[in-house]
Amino acid sequence: MELIKVKNVKTDFGDKVVHDGLNLHVNEGEIYGLLGPSGCGKTTLLREMVLLQEFNAGSIEILGQKIENISEEQAQQLRRKWGVLFQFGALFSSLTLAENIALALREYSTLSDAMIQEIVAFKLDLVGLKPSDAFLYPSEISGGMRKKAGIARALAMDPKLLFLDEPTSGLDPISAREFDELILQLRTMLGLTMVIVTHDLHSIYNTLDRMAIIDNKKIAYEGSLEEVTSVKNDFIQTFFGGHTK
Ligand SMILES: Nc1ncnc2c1ncn2[C@@H]1O[C@H](COP(=O)(O)OP(=O)(O)OP(=O)(O)O)[C@@H](O)[C@H]1O
Questions:
Q1: Distance set, CA 175 to CA 46, 127, 143, 148 (Å)
Q2: Key word Coiled coil present in the record (predicted)?
């Protein structure tokens, strides 16, 4: 089942055309990568998918709902069905990790305090953080732990879909690989579908089921790693740093 359908999406910022007819789909349960050279419009597409950015033409359907011309009420309902972790999507520095994770639950649910604490503890455990980490502030933890806490916050409302923008950027290699493992575990445990913008070749190899490479305003290549890297041309060779078959 296709959870995301992008059809002929066009985006410009004034004179600058960023997307000129993008087409892709993401299947349920898939870890799908948005790749491409710097500035090709990956983050813009991700922002369009999560209703933070308008596009000029075409159509995007998420979880069966077309998002162009969506009403505010429908948009609010849809936003609760996905979690997002942006590259600089910092946690609120004045709140503990537990308070950060609980934020959406307090805003969108009528659950009791005790129930919210239980859910927070469960989410912390899910991402590999300790119960005692709940009381720490973002400034007191490492970058890797912050990313994990960001994922725990994104998972607070039990989303079906997770959108991640450059999740391993800024992490040391060990934390980055730990993060890849976490992504794979979460998919297995929760059956999540994920869309990940990434430049990280290790993450691309370790985690992605399929990917789209945006170049020159279009989806230049789409498919599994095997399919994409079997293309014999200079662009693909350079993009994958010569690590193709
Ligand atoms: N709000 C905006 N106003 C004007 N131009 C924008 C805006 N947002 C993005 N752009 C431009 O659109 C292009 C695509 O940006 P985007 O951030 O989507 O690229 P990207 O592929 O994610 O890049 P990177 O890999 O460097 O993060 C860039 O040229 C950028 O400068």
A1: 24, 13, 8, 10
A2: no
